[in-house]
Specification:
Distance between the termini: 11 Å
Structural class: mainly alpha
Radius of gyration: 19 Å
Order of helices and strands: HHHHHHHHH
Largest sheet: none
Length: 286
C-alpha cells in the first residue's frame, strides 16, 4: 500500500459502516454476557446423521487444497507475472469444487437415506424469514471479527517480517483491471464461501459434532485449524484465517445455518477485496 494512500470516499464510508456495526455487535455481546446469556442463542435440533465420513470427505478437500499450494511452491523472485486470474481459470476451479461437493453430497445421501436426511441437516430449510435473519447475523458477525482478524494478521506480519500473499490479490497486483476484478470476485466472494463452508462447517464440523456430542467445543477448533491449513502457502495469513474460522465455527454451532456462515464469509472477503483493490488502484495512479 502506498505511504500516502488516501482512501476513496466509498471505502471510507464502508470502513465507517463496518466499524459502527462491529461496535454495535460487541456492545450487544457484552450486555448478553453480563446477563449470563450466550452471545448467540443456540437452536435446538438434531445432529446430522453423518459422523467421521464427513470429516473424511472434508479431509479430501483439505488434502487437495494443501497439495495444490505446496506443489506450486514459492514464487521465484524474478518471476515477471503472477498467475493470471481470468474467467477461464475461475470456471475450471468452479468445476472442480462443484464435482467435489456433488460427489460428497451423493455419498452422504446414499449412505443415510434410511435416516431420511432433511435440508436442516445441511444447514438449510429454515424458511425465508429466519434465513434472512441468519444472513443479517452473518454480516454482523463478519463486522465484529474483521478488526480482530486484521489485528492478528498485522501482528504476525510485524513479528515474522513476512507478508501474506494471496493468489487473487497477487493477480490483481499484476493486472488491476475490471476483468481481473470480476474473476477474483467470483472466486473469492462467491465460490470460496459456498464450497469452503460446505466442506469445513457442514461436512467436517457437523460430522465431528455428532461424534463429540452436542455440547463439545473441540469440533469448532478442529474445523478452524483445518480451514487454516487449506490456506497454506499464503504466508502468515493462515494464523489470522484460523481466528476467522473460529468465529465461523461458533456461528454455525449456534445457528446450524449454512446461510449465516456463507454470508459471514462473503462479507469478510468482500471487505478485504475492496480494501486491496482500492490500495492497488491508488498505487497505479501514483
Amino acid at each position: 500500500m502506498p505511504d500516502d494512500f488516501a482512501p476513496p470516499l466509498w471505502l471510507g464510508c464502508l470502513a465507517l459502516g463496518v466499524l459502527g456495526l462491529g461496535v454495535a455487535v460487541w456492545s450487544a455481546v457484552y450486555w448478553r454476557f453480563m446477563r449470563g446469556s450466550a452471545p448467540l442463542a443456540r437452536r435446538r435440533l438434531r445432529r446430522p446423521p453423518w459422523g467421521w465420513e464427513g470429516a473424511i470427505l472434508a479431509g479430501l478437500y483439505l488434502f487437495s487444497a494443501v497439495f495444490a499450494a505446496l506443489s506450486a511452491g514459492p514464487a521465484p523472485a524474478d518471476e515477471a507475472e503472477p498467475i493470471a486470474m481470468d474467467l477461464e481459470l475461475v470456471a475450471s476451479q468452479l468445476a472442480i469444487m462443484t464435482l467435489f461437493s456433488a460427489t460428497a453430497l451423493a455419498l452422504i445421501v446414499a449412505r443415510h437415506r434410511p435416516r431420511k436426511l432433511t435440508l436442516r441437516d445441511f444447514g438449510l430449510g429454515w424458511g425465508a424469514t429466519r434465513t434472512a435473519g441468519d444472513i443479517a447475523t452473518g454480516v454482523a458477525a463478519a463486522a465484529a471479527m474483521l478488526p480482530l482478524v486484521y489485528a492478528v494478521n498485522l501482528a504476525m506480519v510485524l513479528i515474522t517480517g513476512d507478508r501474506t500473499p494471496h493468489p487473487a490479490i497477487e493477480s490483481l497486483m499484476g493486472d488491476p483491471t475490471g476483468h481481473t476484478l470480476l474473476a477474483t470476485a467470483i472466486l473469492a466472494v462467491v465460490a470460496a464461501p459456498l464450497f469452503e463452508e460446505f466442506a469445513f462447517r457442514v461436512l467436517l464440523q457437523g460430522g465431528l459434532q455428532r461424534v463429540a456430542g452436542k455440547h463439545a467445543w473441540w469440533p469448532v477448533a478442529a474445523s478452524a485449524v483445518a480451514f487454516g491449513l487449506a490456506h497454506a502457502g499464503h504466508g502468515v495469513a493462515p494464523v489470522a484465517i484460523v481466528v476467522l474460522a473460529l468465529g465461523l465455527g461458533y456461528v454455525y454451532r449456534q445457528t446450524h445455518s449454512f446461510a449465516a456462515v456463507v454470508a459471514m464469509h462473503m462479507a469478510f472477503n468482500s471487505v478485504s477485496l475492496s480494501v486491496a483493490y482500492a490500495a492497488l488502484r491508488a498505487g497505479a495512479e501514483l
